[in-house]
Amino acid sequence: MTEPSLEIAQIGNPVLRQTAEWIDRPQDRAYQILIADLLQTMTQSAGVGIAATQVGVAKQLVIVASRPTLRYPNAPQISPIPMFNPQLVEHSDETEKGWEGCLSVPGIRGLVPRYKSVTVEYQDRDGQTQQLILHDFVARVFQHEYDHLQGIVFVDRVENTTELMSELEYQRQILGIVPNP
Q1: What digits encode the pLDDT tens for the residues 166-176?
Q2: Closest residue by Cα to residue 10 from 83, 80, 108, 81
């Protein structure tokens, strides 16, 4: 794996606890470049989503990009969706716990309760308002990234510390993979 194009802020970095600022002109060239850099950083880091705050930019921009990876082998494949100023406008009553990790919290996984379905409104890269209904894993990815814009990290949502484990144990116990020494 090559080094990500942008440095990913690690837990403890104050930017991860900031509330991200509204973006007035998503179509500006600087934000289009940021989207490209975020996509490259996320892909090189084997992520399925990323928030601008994770690279030190406290602005309301996330990318949801579900795809199968080593950590999420059953994730659905979708084209990356850049979302400016996203809002969670509606959610299901039903929640479900699922395993999450984070590029900003390397080596740790946790069982996190999330809504099974969410309706989100956001501005696309041209500044146009869009609305999507997301389900299951993709809804989970959105909620995880949306939390970053509020200064929340997934470990804040774990209900019990016994529901945390190392990446190595996650691979062994949950995925059934025996990593090479």
Answers
A1: 999 998 998 88
A2: 108
Q: Is 44 exposed, middle or buried (0-12, 13-18, 19+ CB in 10 A)?
A: middle
Q: Is the pTM of this model over 0.85?
A: yes
Residue with token string 């995880």: 144
Q: Write out residues in the chain with pLDDT < 70, as ranges.
A: 1-4, 179-181
In words, the CATH class of domain 14-174 is alpha beta
Sequence ranges of the domains in the chain: 14-174
Q: Is 103 strand, coil or helix?
A: coil
Q: To which H or E segment does residue 96 belong?
A: strand 95-102
Burial 156-173, CB ≥16 within 10 A → b, else e? ebbeeeeebbeeeebbee
Q: Is 145 designated active site?
A: yes
Catalytic residue among 94, 96, 100, 145: 145
- The pairing of strands 95-102 and 129-135 is unpaired
In order of 90, 91, 134, 148, 164, the CA distances from 156 in angstroms are 22, 20, 23, 11, 11
What one-letter code names the amino acid at 13?
N
Q: Percentage of the chain surpassing pLDDT 90?
A: 87
